[in-house]
Each structure stands twice: as C-alpha cells, then as structure tokens.
Design goal:
It is a single chain. The protein is of the alpha/beta class. It has one domain: 3-Layer(aba) Sandwich (Rossmann fold). Helices cover about 35% and strands about 25% of the residues. It contains nine helices and ten strands. The longest helix is centred in the last third of the chain and has 18 residues. About 40% of the residues are buried.
Length: about 250
Amino acid sequence: MNLLSIKELTKFYQSEKIAVDHVSFNLNKGECLGLVGESGCGKSTLARCLMRIERIDSGSILFENEAIELLDERHLHSYRKKMQIVFQNPSAALNPKLKVKDSLIDPYAQYKKELNLSHFSYTSKDAFIRQLLEAVELPSHLADKYPHELSGGQRQRVTIARAISIEPELIVLDEPTASLDVISQKAVLSLLTELRETLNLSYLFISHDLAAVSQMCQRILVMKDGRLVDQFNTNYLFDNERHPYTKELISIF
C-alpha cells in the first residue's frame, strides 16, 4: 500500500539551479526506503519539500492520496502530525535552553487534541517522558539534563524519541548518523530498525552512506545532480545492470 507518492517533483532556487529535477517514487506503508547520493545532490532539499519547509515549483506530493502541496496552514498542521523528521545535527535540532523533558513533550503538547496513541500512553508528563526515553534506550535521569550535557549519540536518540512521541505514519531520517562516531552510528541504526518494527513506522532514510542504507532499507533510490538515476530492491544492489554512478558508490563503501 502506497503511503507516499512523489510525482515529477521539481524545485528551483533563485539562481535557477535545479535542486530537485522531476523526481518520482513511491514509499509503501511499513517500508524503509533509502535515498542515497553525494552531498549537494538534492537529498536534503527533497526532505524539506516533503515537510513543506520549502515549497515545490512543480509536481505533486501525495500522502495517503492527499496532495500535500495544496494544503493551507491549518491542514498542514495535521499533516505534520503524520510525518516527522530527524535531522543530521541533533545539537541544532534541540533548543539548548530547554531540558530534554521539555523538548520531548513539545510535539505531544501541540497535537494532544488530535492524538489517538496506540503504543505510548499519557497518564502524566513524567510517565510519558520515561516511556519515550525507555523506547530509545536512554536512562530516565537524562530528562532533567540540557542538550550540551549529553553525548552526540544521546542527543540523536532524544530527537528520535521526540519524532516517535506522537506515533507518526512516516519519519524522514535526513543523515541521522552523519555527525556520530562509528559506535554510535551502529547503535542508532539498530535502534531505528527496532523502532520501525515495534511501532509499525515507515522511513525515508536519506544518507550519503550506501553501507548504512543497504543495511537499513528494503529498497534504494540513487540520486545524482537532482535526478533519480537508479532504483531497485536492496537484494539487487550488486547486479550488473546497476547505473554507473551506483557502481561508483559501491566501489567506495
């Protein structure tokens, strides 16, 4: 079942550079779909378009068959409840003046009247925060810490906990391990896989790291200069018919 359908999505910048060039793909419910390519190829621009942080110039974004690019601010609020994003840099994603518990409760506070949680339950703020921290394998005492008091891996787990707190349908993971050390990267990738299965989440996993994408994803899209040049089931990564750019990425991972 298609959860997200992108059709001929195009995004220009004022320089008239095409950042995303007629990109089309589908993402299925419960799937982890990988989007891989070198820095500057348009991956993060695509992510911002999906979140409506940036407007598209042409094409369409269908989420559960609804055209997202046409939504007004009121309906966009409900859409963002269903799609959350985890950014590359957790330090920039967390307000340094807020304790972890206050950052974690913010999505729930925004959407509590619209939520019908099935995995988490809200009986009190403290109990809810403990559930979220437990879900991402962090000790509950970190709730009273500020972001600068946490390691990079811990901060990223907090941003993941915040993203799953309202049980969205889809999470866009925009280079979620790029700023972490190798040990933290492996732990976060393992955690994300476990959460997807436990919470029945769908992921768009964006990365320049083909090894991480092939570990996480059932299907892979390859992006170069704003265009999709290859897409395939992960099992066919090493097939001879792969695009030359995909083979180039394979050679360096």
